[in-house]
Design goal:
about 400 residues; mainly alpha; Glycosyltransferase; two-stranded antiparallel ribbon; 13 helices; globular; binds glycine; 6hp_glycosidase-like_sf; Glyco_hydro_88
Length: about 400
Amino acid sequence: MKRYFFTVLALSLLHTSTSAQKPNVKKVFKLAAEQTEYMLKQVDEAKHHSGNPALVSPRTTENGKLRLVASKDWTSGFFPGVLWFLYEYNHQQEWMKEAKKFSAPIEKEKLNGTTHDMGFKVYCSIGTGYRILKDAHYKEVILESAKKLATRFNPKTGVILSWDHSRDKWVNPVIIDNMMNLELLFEATKLGGDSTYYRIAVSHANTTMKNHFRPDYSSYHVIDYDPQTGVVLKKNTHQGYSHESAWSRGQGWALYGYTMCYRFTKDPVYLRQAENIAAFILNHPNMPKDLVPYWDFNAPNIPNEPRDVSAAAVIASALYELSEYSDQKKVYLEKANLMMNSMANKYTAPVGTNGGFILIGSTGSKPSNSEVDVPLSYADYYYMEALHRVNQLK
Ligand code: GLY
């Protein structure tokens, strides 16, 4: 009996330590490199078949085939970013060559002021390249991109306008995803650019903190502002289950956004906000045991709902950074590790499948039945970033 008790205890301790063990960085990077080599061949083939030179980056698969997008698509910067992470990890010149090649077509987006997605496009590609190489030209691209993004800031609302589209529904829509663009603005000021970029980022973060969050620190997706007065007109969703639900990736953007704001400003208000958002996510009763969220925390048919691995990747990456600032370090590391191990063990595609994407099981937009339970380039990007962060942990 005694021996049985100790065996059970040992096994349960083993289980706890295994599930929250640091991810096997070497193994995952090796697999990611093999899979990305396969992806490069797939991309060549898909480009050749499309006959459209404007299609530059892989976004997902459709009917078993790669779907490529043009640089103006919000996801165009993620695959170049994955290539940069591979180069940073193994320092093989071939990866740098590919990273530069895939980043180059994104550069022209620095002049595209018709969307807020500048950060996703330019910062995840060229910004990641700059962090690694400190290339003077990349720095210029970051500064020019910040200048263009800043044109979307409205001092009357205090926020950066997200979308020019959907004017039938919203006058001045601002989505929680927009928090992710602030990194480009903060960094541009740090690199010697105008201090206005920093002030715009702070204004956007503060206004969003006031208007986008519910008392439980879950976030709305879309807030519509009166562009003349800054008055909030609507609190809605676009990709979530309902206006009052918590769209999972949106919660991830919020967590990542405020953690990053703390990195640049050291304002404790942002740290507290990030900790509160983390508590909402991690303690949610609908969070599955493997910590890979359903696409919306309030999706009506949980547990029979698609997961969103991209949300898990964003959240894991954010938690690693937050663990460096918060006194909840141990909890955040344990949860992030568990998420990473779930992705590695349950949501990783065998090499030579999945169009070359590393992860399966993401959901782009369930309400429009678009990209449900598929690979997505941004899931891979934040997964690679999270892995890089594991390597950087103090
Ligand atoms: N930024 C768009 C999305 O998260 O789907």
